Each structure stands twice: as C-alpha cells, then as structure tokens.
Amino acid sequence: MQIFYTISETQNYLKTQQKSGKTLGFVPTMGALHAGHISLIEQAKKENDISVCSIFVNPTQFNNPEDLKKYPRTLEKDCELLQAAGCEVVFAPSAEEMYHNLPKLKFDFGNLETVMEGKFRPGHFNGVGIVVSKLFHVVKPDKAYFGLKDLQQVAVIRQMVYDLSFDLEIIPCPTLREADGLAMSSRNMRLSVEARALAPHIYKVLNLTKAQLQAGASSVEAHAHAVAYFKNYPEFELEYLEIADFDTLMPIGQINSPDKTAICIAAFLGGVRLIDNIVF
Ligand code: AMP
Fold first, then answer.
1. 147-186 tens-digit pLDDT
2. Distances (CA, A) of 46 to 172, 257, 278
3. In this structure, is residue 181 part of a structural domain?
4. pTM for the whole thing?
C-alpha cells in the first residue's frame, strides 16, 4: 500500500496508473476508520483496478471548533485497517498541504442545504463541497463511494458533480450498523459506556417512525410520536427529526407521497453529535 502526504506525489503516482489503463475507485474519509468505511473500500476494490482512500479531517466543514478539536485522529491504525482490506493508495494530507491559503470560492447548494445538516451546521456543505472537489481534482477517480449514512452529503455531492460536470460516477453505499442497530460512526468511540448503551434508541425511533408511517400515520403524527419517545430519554438532545422526500430532502406534508421517504435524525448524546437515517 502506498501512503502519500502531498498532492503532487499523489497526482504523479495516480496519473501513471491511469495512463497504464487502470481505473480508480475513491473513498474520501476523515479517518478513525471502522467497518462502515472499510465496506466502501471493499466495494471500490470490486469495481476498480485501484482503490484510493483519503484521510483528512477537513477543518472547513466544521462549524464548531470544539467538535473539530475532539474529532478522533488515528492515522496509524487506519493505515493498518486499510492495508488489511487491500487498499492500494492512501492520501493523508495535512491541513497546510490542502489549504496553504483559505479558499475564497463559496458553494451554495440552495434548497439542499437549508434543511437538516445544512440548517444546523452553517457552512458545513460549503466546506464539504470545497474539500471533495479538491480531492476529486487530486485523485481524478472513475468512481467515488459515499455512505448513505450521510444522506444529505450524497445529495449535495451529486448536485456538485452534475453542476461542475465532474467526469466520474458517484456510488452511494448502505449504512453499516453495530449488532444493536447503532450506525457505525467515528464519533461512537467518544460515547461513555452509559451513552453507548442508550445510543441504539436512535435506530429504534427511526424504525418506529417508519412503521407508523407505513401503518397510515401522517408525518405530523409520526413526528410528534418520535419526539415524545425521546422525552423518555432526557440524555438525548434531539436537534432535528425530519421526514423528508428522499430526492429533494424537503419535509413531507400530509398530502405528498414521494417514491422514497427518508427519516433523518441528529441528536446529541453526552456531548457527542450522532446522525442516522432510514430510507423506504
Ligand atoms: P467520514 O469519515 O465519517 O466523513 O465518512 C467517510 C465516508 O464513510 C462517508 O461517505 C460516510 O458516509 C461513510 N460512512 C460513515 N459511516 C458509515 C457507515 N456506518 N456505513 C457506511 N458508510 C459510512
């Protein structure tokens, strides 16, 4: 496995590979890797000659400096996991390497960022747009793999790829969960034992809300029920619970019936911000 820390080394190496006809599958991450990330690498390996993983805790997508400071950084262990998964190339730049100067360009994703993550993390998707487009220019992948755990991120990146005519395919990948239903996340390692025991309630509420909607409850009723559920567990600070159209991410009123519905949650638990969703 090759590990590069600079843009030029990475570009030089990958350019040579592409010239020899190899296809590249790319998985951008912020490190602190778990089996969810590795499932993306495995899919990239299946569908491409070379899999490339970037590890970069991107400061421009954090609106909360405390959150950025506390984000786990475990590069050595990450590289061991990637090596074991058969990943061919790791790009792990420093913040200085990525941003000698702070970018002046600003992304505005319109409706896609006025809800959920965009609403509660102002500037987050601008930071995501900047870093992912820079990474796409460094790696020039044929396919890029993103987890549906970050559903809104997938929508934003798809829009960016379309608007800027990036010559690559976005592949959305399913969310991997722990045995008790908790969505795998780099942030889970920051949960206390007590918080970890409570965390699966997020997935329980998602399933409960889905069952209610499928049984004919309106989105207003299902929403109220879910909010009431969390009242039984005051350790959670619910930031949002949205029942949204999968394609537009707009909240669903009683009369819409989208092809696919997404239920999305963000909640703080013991100071750790967790997100999850289900789509049906
Ligand atoms: P992150 O490092 O958390 O920014 O995530 C890097 C990529 O891994 C993103 O595309 C995430 O959506 C994806 N990812 C994170 N958690 C999971 C999971 N539990 N299952 C599948 N993909 C995930």
1. 999 999 999 999 999 999 999 999 999 999 999 999 999 9
2. 14, 36, 25
3. no
4. 0.96
